Amino acid sequence: MNLFRKHPSLPVFLGLLAAFVLAVTLMSEAAGAGLVSTSFVKTLGKTLCLCLIALAMDLVWGYTGILSLGHFAFFGLGGYMIGMWLMYARTETIVEASLASGALPPTPQEVQDAIATQIFGVVGASDLPAIWSLAGSLPAQLALVVLVPAALAAVFGWLAFRARVTGVYLSILTQAMTLALALWLFQNDSGLRGNNGLSGLQNIPGLEQHGQDLVSLWFFWASALALGLGYLGAQWLVSGKFGSVIRAIRDDEARVRFLGYPVEGFKLFVFVLTAVVAGLAGALYYPQAGIVNPAELAPIASIYLAVWVAIGGRGRLYGAVIGAAFVSLVSTWFTGGNAPDIPLGGYTLHWVDWWQVLLGLSFVAVTLYAPRGIGGLFDLLAGLRAPNRRGAPLGPDQGALQEKEADA
Amino acid sequence: MSTLLEVSGVSVTFDGFRAINNLSFSIAEGELRAVIGPNGAGKTTFMDIVTGKTRPDSGRVLFGEKSVDLLRLSEARIARAGVGRKFQRPTVFEDQTVAENLMLALRAHRAPWRVLFWRPKPADHARIAELAAEVGLSDQLPRKAGELSHGQKQWLEIGMLLAQEPRLLLVDEPAAGMTGPEREHTTDLLVSLARSRAVVVVEHDMEFVRRLACKVTVLHEGSVLAEGSLDHVTANPAVIDVYLGRG
Q: Which residue spans traverse the membrane (chain A) (predicted)?
């Protein structure tokens, strides 16, 4: 309760989120007036998942100063882990139904072989790879949604932080990590269907009797709940002494070491925690998207994530959420062909092609002219201004808050 | 008094330049010591070695009654063992309030998991208020450290060191860039600090060292040139030669 009083933005955020969920529910096809199409409910649900990973990105970059350009790898892995169960379990029901017509009941081995042929026929294989051995069990795959991103983040973070890699070099390493993972997933023999990825994820086994309109609304609720809980947890995390320590690491990590704090331990803790949050967000996102493939883990995706947080305003939780929601929804609008083309005499400006340019320009503009991003608008309303430090950042480290990002 | 810190035979070379050359000396429990020397004598490098920032090529640095070898520990472990350091430029966390800065330094568990669930108790708030009063920042607690004047930042940093409760405090040029009254306040703070713990002050300014009235170690080219009272060392021809002969 103390948390709510100390941070007025917290009840406001949770209240707005609840109101938004209620409004969408009342306008949905499944439970309300049908003003909002099922596919748009899915888009909104996916956007909430993107807000959740943006929150994770803000913790790791905005608060701890680690510019990770690899968090979408964890998001994708979360999607793959839940996708394995979704695909396996659904194929199982189909296979069992078709084999049931035979004279003899099928043996478990026959069922498994048939599932493997179904799933891996597309990459010319018919054996179930070892990494799919737990795919039949939902609890096991749910555990992997958490464990796989955590393990990758722990190994990568331990190696990188222990060697005291910081700044640009760390960002490059995280890019290399996500690129390597994507390239590995692209291979047909890595056992995750190569560039086809996992598909048909919108059909949830056991929920076939319910229509997509209802299922998508459930996922929308689940995504909103996850975002609400994630926001609450993040606010709690950054409000206490832990938050004070990670902000200190962002601005001047050498000084934190001389206070006796194990800086590498803190960085690893935040890196792994945010990787887990990213994994969970991915596990909620991909059943709504219906397909996960290695292109999702491309390095550019993680860079977009940093752009969202920068546009929203890093170092403040609601900034990250606003940035992710705003940019991804606007992006959907432009790339969906909804924006009217602009005829310019001999050349017609198609937004589908020019949206990226617009996004790039607005990123540059925000960095140069409004470093506090969209979230900074609230500071204007509240009358808060940046301190006058004659251009000096708030600490010697590369990730340190810049003058214009800080509150006086 | 028993020895708290013993530096023996330490040498360190940077790109062929011998910054510290077979340096040996020791600090007793609760002692106030000034280390002086011309530029490049190795004063700051000595501090870097003791606090774990720089690893020497040879030698040993033993600390405390159990004679822990500091050279085997990380910076954070050395700090937890009881060595505090004040940098030349005031280094406080400028985006955080004076109270938050002191709270960070307050003696408590340092592991991430313990920090996560740590919440200040009334006794901790009282201790922060007490520390702020001691360094003269009582009315500045809710202000951001970045807004403080240069002298106030120095005192905040000293307050943070007090909160850390180190057994040995290394202070690098505390009087640099301070005005007259600020210097006096700083001298008083250092002398009162030394009542309960060992303090090593690295300083350029002879007048400041005289006011501290303590044993002085003169460093030159990375090793000890002379040791004793300020009058004793300033009468030493070798010291005069180093200070006056080379300007």
A: 43-62, 69-88, 142-161, 168-186, 218-238, 259-285, 291-310, 317-334, 354-371
